[in-house]
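Protein modeling request. Please complete all fields; requests missing the sequence field cannot be processed.
Requester role: graduate student
Desired output: 3D structure, token encoding
Chains: 1
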Amino acid sequence: MKTLREALLKDNITSLGIWLTFISAIVFLLCGTLENRNEGGDFSVFFLNYAITIVYSLVVLITAFKRYKWGLSKSKIDYTIFMLILWLISAFALNRVMNVFDDSVTWLSILLVLSCTSLALTPFLEYLLPAFEHFICFFVSISIMLFGYFALSLIPLYIISAPAALGLGISLHSYVPLLLTIFTIILALKSVKRHKGLIFSLAGGLLFCLVAIAYFNYSWYSINSKITKFANRNTLAEGKLPNWVVISQNIPAGKVSERILKSDLVYKTFNTDGNWLWGNFMNRRFDEKQQHDPLVVLATLFQGKISLDETERIKILESMYDSRHQAQERLWSGDELETRNIITNVRIFPEYRMAYTEKILNIRNKDSRKWGGNQEAIYTFHLPEGSVVSSLSLWIAGKEEKAYLTTKSKADSAYKQIVGVEHEQRDPSVIHWQEGNKVSVRVFPCTPTEDRKFKLGITSPLRKTGSQLVYENIYFDGPTANDATETLQLNFSMIPGHLNLPDGCEEMSKGVYQANRDYEPDWQLRFIAPKLSPETFSFDGKSYQIYEAVITESTFRPAAIYLDLNKQWTKDEFDALWEAIKTKTVYVFNDKLVQLREDNKDIEFEQLSKLNFSLFPIYKITRPAQSLLISKGTPASPNLSDLKGSEFANRLSSYLETPKEVALYNIGDELSPYIKTLKELRVFKYQTGDLKNLLNALSASKYQSFREDSATVVIDASGVSIRQSRNEKAGKAPDHLLRLFAYNRIMKKVAERYFRDDFIQPEIIAEAEKANIVSPVSSLIVLETQKDYERFGIEESKNSLKNASMKSSGAVPEPHEWVLILLTSLIVLYFIKRPSLKKLTA
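Delivered output (842 residues):
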């Protein structure tokens, strides 16, 4: 029996087919991952793949004609296999230029590779082990279903492709899946005829496909039915929450649900009105790469689309999958942008338990077209709890231009007018506050001819855990940073003890460390918390000083306990807590307040522990001072602002108008976005810890909370308070004390009007201007020229700290102090020059 090597050496055309298939696949894969992919480049790659295909096709046809004249069907089957695989590779290369199918999902790409590989191995089955033979036939069977799907999808193209083939023959690619389907069926039948046992492998492959399709369709139908059920139930009950909130709470958060919600946003669906699959343009309201998933197409064919409109689906995606960055309004596309380089410059003040971080990002537009290539970069930065943005800069014509602070509405209006209406090449950038310790940054235009650069400054409290302080890196969503490099610099106002630096850091000088590396979004550093500094910062007639936060421990026997249950709770946690509180009045919220008893507690827990998130209606707590709310956070939930206009929000707004503090104990460190915002608005007397600490506190009837007043704000993550006084004595503390103080006080002031249109009050704006910080009422914006600022009525703040910088420390001189400094300088100068003046007059 001859070996495989001998067979290939004897048949040059088969060997050529293998080599050309390998080369064509490598060209297709490598060129598809090049940085500067563009229409011209894709077309060149296609013609290279097409040329390889034509060359081999001509070799096969000429050889067959020489051997069999017009009996071409008698040609060796091996040649046809490799010829059709080459045509398939060429077809997918053409698809990059003339988009018929969107980018394949991962499982489809893998299955296409396995199908072509199994098809290419079929001529050599006699040289393989029997087990491999069955394995290959299993995938050949799957290939029939896969190629058949593509063949059916392309039926609308068949009529126009035939006459168009008279040119360069490019339209012949439309028939490749059909030919592959027919040929693979013939190949499968021949294999069974040769070895009848292979019929079981072929049947297994077909059954696998049918089961997968059936399961996905059943899941689609089941989730779609639940969506309809929960929406109808909420409507009939006249629910206080919008339908989309109730749906996102209750449907399972899996891959099928995500694909249902992203249908026609990310995943193409079967289009009965147009050209089936390929006729419609996709929606651009959701910024995620459009993908082709045959299971989604077939599910919409057999089960139909969901009955939710686009806005509702996006809201559910935000609430279930934390897709807020993808759902942001986009005035221009940004799909060709990437983050090329990041400079992270951190100034840490251990003795003040705070840090100032500057992030300088370089953005590159990979599109090599010289026309129509303008794009908009949008970033979402995730900040440590209690952080505030205190500076923004944009490089224009090679020069750093610093931002002006103005109201959020005015900044948004100016940016949209320039970018969205006038489409001007005016170089604006804007940053807005978002709920959940996030901010969004926009930069326009990002052109193919020039990299853009902007700088963001963030003032952050350091998190205190035990005796240690923790600095957490500020990471972002936005143009991909997969290939980005980063320069990290850390400098300390004082060297702390037991400093645990990130990997790769080298000491450049005393207290200054630097690392040059690939970008890493997730890192932190730790060190021992030193004694707090007694220094103050003074500005505008007031001084600011940091102290250890005063923790008050009081006797607390709650008259009622409210459990905020969701899927993060375990049954063991619930049972352990119930044993400690079952003698008290305990409520849960399940469409209405339900008092727990021994006979209903397990049923209520079973229902509520399925919720993806919870939105406990704190306005239902009738005696806040005598009540305890126990919660456990979820990674995602609706933001407070998402609920605006609902009955839930209206009642919550009325509740917030009169200051009340509910005792909230959160089990664990994670807070849902909903609870996180209410906490920032000072709605709770907040305490966090594990279940054991909670049980101990309940047993001792004790509750700990931080004390705050009109002149003091507490930053509980750091365990410190910042106190404002009228002492004008200059100090050496950083100006970030004022910035953090102002941010926390603004959050407290906006609480009572948070859902109202008039929550932007002049005194709140004035406080934001003084500290130059981004908040719910204020934004930072960079415009190209002074005339642009004047056109939109944006003025530079007068009595302000201005943009923060690495040199922001110590007291800022008042106007009258500047006069004294000038007079003192003149007097000193006079005495220095006095001898020279005497000589001149002598």
